[in-house]
Amino acid sequence: MKELDSLVALTKQLRKECPWDREQTHESLKQHLIEESYEVVDALDSGSPDRIREELGDLLLQVLFHANIAEEQGAFTLADVARTLEKKLVDRHPHVFGNTPASGAGEVKENWEKLKMHEGRVSVLDGIPPHLPALLHATRIQEKASAAGFDWKRPDQVVIKISEETGELAAAAHGGDPEKIRGEFGDLLFSLVNYARFIRVDPEGSLRGTIRKFRERFTYIEDELRKSGRTPADSSLEEMDGLWNEAKKK
């Protein structure tokens, strides 16, 4: 706690003495908060404890920034944030701090959603940030609907749905209506997210992994071509495809 107190004092000093820090508002810092969150995710993907520690610190800085601004405005303090979180955690863990039994993680999650509804939410879908990345947003929406009992029973049913949506997308593409194509493409993606949920795959993380592989392999193509003073624009698709296969083997 001594280190945290020292950090809080440091951020308040920066807020007073640094021209850039002094000018920041909740609004101006929103994008930084989003970017730092993604930096943490990237660090977690890397598996490097040093990177994870550093990026968690950068994310914590954003939390302190917003708490300091709110305190200056007389809205709330960092202590209020901590108290609110502590109360929420106690209230939503009656199986730990109360007498509500929970046999496993699934039942804990179900009880959590029931408690949220008792807190005044109108829809089970309330509380999902609309600005989440689309794949993650779709996953959270489906999880909430599933917890309410609206879901497929078996993964093979989702596979059939994916096949249907693929056919509908192909038909829309043949028809040429941009709005229809966009809608059917979204339906197909939504179905794929559904299947990912059934087979316990994180679609957001899975796609990030595929993107990372693509970047590594395409960079290999560029590096190999650069050895002969060329770029992808100077080579044929067949040559690049051969280098791609080399990258896969490596």
Structure report:
This protein is mainly α and 250 residues long. It has 3 domains: 2-87, MazG-like (Helix Hairpins, Orthogonal Bundle), CATH 1.10.287.1080; 134-200, MazG-like (Helix Hairpins, Orthogonal Bundle), CATH 1.10.287.1080; 205-249. Helix content is 76%, strand content 0%. It has helices at residues 2-17, 19-23, 26-46, 49-72, 78-91, 94-97, 105-118, 134-147, 155-175, 178-198, 203-226, 237-249. Helix 1 packs across helix 4 (49-72) and helix 11 (203-226) crosses helix 12. It is extended. The relative contact order is 0.05. The model has no long low-confidence stretch (mean pLDDT 91).
SS class: mainly alpha
Characterize the largest beta sheet: strand count, sense, and whether it forms a barrel.
Answer: none
Please state the second-level CATH architecture of the largest domain. Orthogonal Bundle
Secondary-structure element order, as H and E?
A: HHHHHHHHHHHH
Short structural summary:
The chain has 250 residues and is mostly helical. The protein contains 12 helices and no strands.
Helix and strand topology:
Elements (H helix, E strand, L loop, with lengths): L1 H16 L1 H5 L2 H21 L2 H24 L5 H14 L2 H4 L7 H14 L15 H14 L7 H21 L2 H21 L4 H24 L10 H13 L1
Helix pairs in contact: 1-4, 3-4, 8-10, 9-10, 11-12
Give me some keywords for this one.
250 residues; mainly alpha; Helix Hairpins; 12 helices; 76% helix; extended
